[in-house]
Amino acid sequence: MLTQEMRDSMIDVADLNQLKWDLNHLQPVDVGEYISKLPTNQRAIAFRLLNKAQAIDVFEYLPTEVQEELINSLHDVQVVQIVEAMSPDERAELFDELPAGVIKRLLQELSPEQRQATATILGYPEGTAGRVMTTEYVRLREGLTVGEALSKIRRQDEDKETIYYAYVTDDNRTLVRVVSLRQLLFTFPDVLIRDIASDRVIKVRTETPQEEVAQIMKRYDLIAIPVVDREDRLVGIITIDDVVDILEEEATEDIQKLAGVSGDEAALSSPLLTIRNRLPWLLGIMALYIGAASAIAPFQSVIAAVPVLAVIMPIFSNTGGTVGIQALTVTIRGLGVGEVTPKDTLKILRKELIAGLGTALALCLTMILLSLIWARPQERWVALVAGIVMASNTMVAVTLGTLLPMGLKRLKLDPALVSGPLVTTMLDTIGFLTFLSLISVALNVLHLPS
Length: 450
Description:
The protein is mainly alpha-helical. It is built from 22 helices and six strands. Residues 133-196, 197-253 form the CBS domain. The chain crosses the membrane at residues 279-299, 305-332, 353-375, 381-404, 416-443.
């Protein structure tokens, strides 16, 4: 682990020998964290202190922007050695962020085998199994014996992503069976692979969405899953470390969308990136709120006649929006982890409506009480209207929070596209229109006092 002194101090030229020893004896993930937190002008210095093997391991744990920065500051030979040693999927992820000219130069320097593997992965659409798979896996033929298979693994498969599973293919590379390393180790050497390998292979296709891959691996407790093309030919595997990254990426994306944040913003992102990511959303939300404000504009005389409305209306806005976001979050989370599907829409809606009914009653009574406290004696009739509208708005909120993400999922769109601010604005518009219309009717038709 990194010492507190290393975490708190910058590079001291006088202590480079000690730092070199420390960095080369720490875990790569800890070194990657240390280098990432250094000032920009010191990262390359620290990275150059690493020996070749440690540098290769550490590079994969660095954030993409730091990797790109180091590529621009290191010698071409050193860069090629590092990129060549990366797994194909990690290399493809890095290339996604690099300028086209740099990618072209690096591809030309890679070995033909690694160049082909990287080009293959980059050829698949982003967010699919083909884009996150690695082409480094253990492949066996059915006709091998267990002893021959183990010898092959020892001789040729040292650098594979994982050897826990070996995938059995025919002469056309069609995936037919899978066998675990445990089975190989505890079976006599002269037994044929086909006699112990399972033909019940759980697999995904190159075009399978990456979040679906994560759900399948979670469901079946797999540490790796094979990826096949449309002809069932084995083209790669996805390992558990990739799935962890996928789940983190999907969770981050959903949270950002719910909060109305776009892009790849992180807690320590630059102010410029923060402005660039947030401002479009904020301007969009402002445009939506103009719609909600427009619903209020025709009722200015009503609000002037009944001043307590100015006190009550913000409560509608905050409470209704919160109820909607609660239902929205639970539904999106259930869809995200595969707990529910669009087929469960009525079941989920029934549950939310029953819960919403109890919530609506409690909020209705609370609203009536608050309105009675704040209203002048001649305005206390407003309390009943406020309570009724609060209850109805609560039921609308749980309905929208459930149906909107379910509808997007049924249309094969991302449910998280329904952001919290969008739902809040819709509920504000509905609530304000309903509330102010009823108050207007009460004043003009029923001639209630103001």
